[in-house]
Design a protein that fits this description.
This protein is of the alpha/beta class. The protein has 2 domains: 2-150 and 294-345, Quinone Oxidoreductase, Chain A, domain 1, CATH 3.90.180.10; 153-288, Rossmann fold. Helix content is 28%, strand content 23%. The chain has 13 helices and 15 strands. It has helices at residues 39-45, 94-97, 129-132, 142-146, 151-161, 178-188, 202-211, 224-231, 247-256, 277-280, 297-305, 324-332, 334-337; strands at 2-6, 12-16, 28-36, 62-69, 81-84, 123-126, 133-135, 170-174, 194-199, 215-218, 237-242, 257-265, 286-288, 315-320, 341-345. Helix 7 (202-211) links the parallel strand 9 and strand 10. Helix 5 (151-161) crosses helix 6. The chain is globular, with a radius of gyration of 20 Å.
């Protein structure tokens, strides 16, 4: 089969690799029908995730068809259409039993495209198939469900639920890429009074308006602190969500927040950020971090299936599986191309 293989920072290739094989009785082999590229993949290609080594197949999101299952798999069978989650869960360790699947110590967590071969391939081995795949509801398209592999649960869990968004809150989202837009979608489920999207790209701010932001700020030419304080009687945001993963945006969130507010960091950071504890400690500011656990995936599947959440609107570009290099180029230049999520499909065209 062919797959996207990582060969060190700024070096990847669409090349021939061996087909995956069942290793454990809890595995499934899934034919990848639809997959995508994540901002985390771009961080990997920058060298920000040193655990990813030369020869690793990238990718941690897919919708596909089960081809083969191990002897211990009971919830899916060959022929089933499934969502492959970005998080694998053994289902037995302490963290899994507390629904903290991203912290799994039984062999799971974020492993696909990280510690084991991932989904940017024609086929993928999925460990712990019973607890790491989800049957796709009838009437829901592959690309809609694909958004539930990572970005929607990440924005919802690590941004909205960790940030404890409440009705009437003013929510500032720093970064209007796919994860920031996911946080905007999730925030609306809790009826905030205002959602402020902050970004450097006008195209992404325009997308943020379409996704539900009530105020947009281009911080290359406007002061987001002035904008947020103008909405809050000079107090600051109730919740500030960091959705970029660079020091400046995290530090901006700590300036935007009111006393007693919550900063929820979603972004994948490759460099240290300064924590001004000398200013924050006295202001009762709570800061949360997190890797997605995907415990919300069943809820989000119901919301998508009932048309309460339109997940397909994230998709801006379509490619065939063999067009991965073109798709990476478009996604990496999102500020120029307007890309939110690129989708690569086996049956494209």
């Amino acid at each position: 089969m062919r797959a996207v293989v990582y060969h060190g920072p700024d070096n990847k290739a669409w090349e021939e690799v061996p087909d995956p094989q069942l290793v454990d009785a809890t595995d499934a082999i899934v034919r990848v029908d639809t997959t995508t590229i994540c901002g985390t993949d771009l961080h990997i290609l920058k060298g920000d995730v040193p655990a990813v080594t030369d020869g690793r197949i990238l990718g941690h999101e897919a919708v596909g068809t089960v081809e083969e299952v191990g002897a211990a798999v009971t919830t899916v069978k060959p022929g089933d259409r499934v969502l492959v989650s970005c998080i694998s869960a053994c289902g037995r360790c302490r963290y899994c039993r507390e629904a903290q699947y991203g912290q799994c110590i039984g062999g799971g967590g974020w492993i696909l495209g990280h510690l084991i071969d991932g989904t940017q391939a024609e086929k993928v081995r999925v460990p712990f198939a019973d607890t790491s795949t989800y049957l796709v509801p009838e009437g829901v398209s592959d690309e809609q469900v694909l958004m539930l592999a990572d970005i929607l649960p990440t924005g919802y869990e690590v941004g909205i639920l960790n940030g404890q968004v409440q009705p009437g809150d003013v929510v500032a989202v720093v970064g209007a890429g796919p994860i920031g837009l996911s946080a905007i979608v999730g925030a609306q489920l809790f009826s905030p009074s205002a959602i402020v999207a902050i970004d450097l790209a006008d195209s992404r701010l325009e997308a943020a308006k379409q996704f539900g932001a009530t105020v947009t700020v281009n911080n290359s030419r406007e002061d987001p602190l002035t904008a947020v304080r103008g909405l809050t009687d000079d107090l600051g945001a109730d919740v500030a969500i960091e959705a970029v993963g660079v020091p400046d945006t995290f530090e901006l969130c700590t300036r935007l927040i009111r006393a007693g507010g919550r900063v929820a960091n979603i972004g994948v950071h490759g460099k240290p950020a300064t924590l001004h504890l000398e200013e924050l400690w006295i202001r009762n500011v709570a800061i949360t971090t997190g890797l997605v656990d995907t415990y919300s995936t069943p809820t989000l599947l119901r919301l998508v299936a009932s048309h309460r959440v339109d997940a397909g609107r994230f998709v801006t570009h379509h490619f065939g599986l063999e067009e991965f290099m073109d798709a990476y180029d478009v996604f990496a230049r999102a500020g120029e191309t307007g890309a939110l999520k690129v989708v690569l499909s086996r049956n494209r065209g």
